[in-house]
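[job 4471] stage=fold_predict status=RUNNING
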Amino acid sequence: MRLRHPDGSTIHLAYCTNVHPAEDLPGIHRQLSGIAARVRHLLGAERLGVGLWLPRQAAGELLARGDDLAALRERLAALGLEVVTLNGFPYRGFHDEVVKYRVYQPDWADAERLRYTLGLAEILAALLPDDVTEGTISTLPLAWRTPWTRDKATAVMANLDALAQGLRDLTHRTGKVIRVGFEPEPGCVIEITPQATALLSGVDHDYLGLCLDACHMAVGFEEPGAGAGTGLPIVKLQASCALEAPPGAQPALAAFDEARFLHQTRSATGYADDLGEALAGGLPADESWRVHFHVPLHADPPPPLTTSAPYLRDLLNTLLGGPSPLTRHVEVETYTWNVLPGASPDLAAGIAAELDWMRGRLTSLGMKEQ
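[job 4471] inference complete, writing structure tokens
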């Protein structure tokens, strides 16, 4: 969906398709023709933005066969869907039985991460609507925090320089500007935005910047305005909510301790890499906990648990409520529907409800649907 900001600029709102377990191109087409098309219908939207996740296999198929890329573009248009952003964080196997730490591989010290991301940029430049000249890709915050050596840091920076040069070359060839946003996440080399400032200050900010994930920021107990004060461009916002437990209510989190994804958990004074570790005594029970478990934007979990939706509202006000927006790409990213306790089996209805909630928040900031 597109909304007009009071300053006249266009805000692109999408949902992220990493919620769908498709690794190959036929699977991508099925998810678009099925769930995505139904979400658009439920919203009554003329067009729906989708933040495509293209795993390595699907991306490779599109790059190898130009006809397949043209067919995907035509299919998107026929379904009333548009793509201005990609999620380039998971590389493959995001819906395997166990993902956990594997989601951070390959990291930015590995040349394969560079090849994969530049390939995504080529695809996105071809998929952008004719009236859109700028696309964005979100990616991991360099690497998991261990091991982090001087040699690894040197390799990362060399790959980021090559990434920026590749994106600049792409602009010269196609006229399309594709920017990549690094997404701070608990437990990683870049956990919070001040670390991003320290590590990314020397990169090419015309093409490289931040992707702010509201769930991650809430888990990091960051102020909503932290990302705006880094001096780095915010190329994309991932609209997401973290799971919260007030003091003494942590046993209720046990239902969310599942095997597929990593659920970093933090309190005011403690941190655990995963929720199970926290529940086993890794965090103080007399403090509130915030859990990296993306929960629906529009609905609270059973009490006494809550979500960081108030934090997301404050972040939206900070980034989009001023005279000019600090980012123009907003992606709803709740990839955990398939592991969410008690979730409705109607995935399309859940995604549509989240997007409708977000549409309401943006219109409350003075935006109008285009």
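[job 4471] summary: The two ends are 8 Å apart (CA to CA).
[job 4471] exit 0
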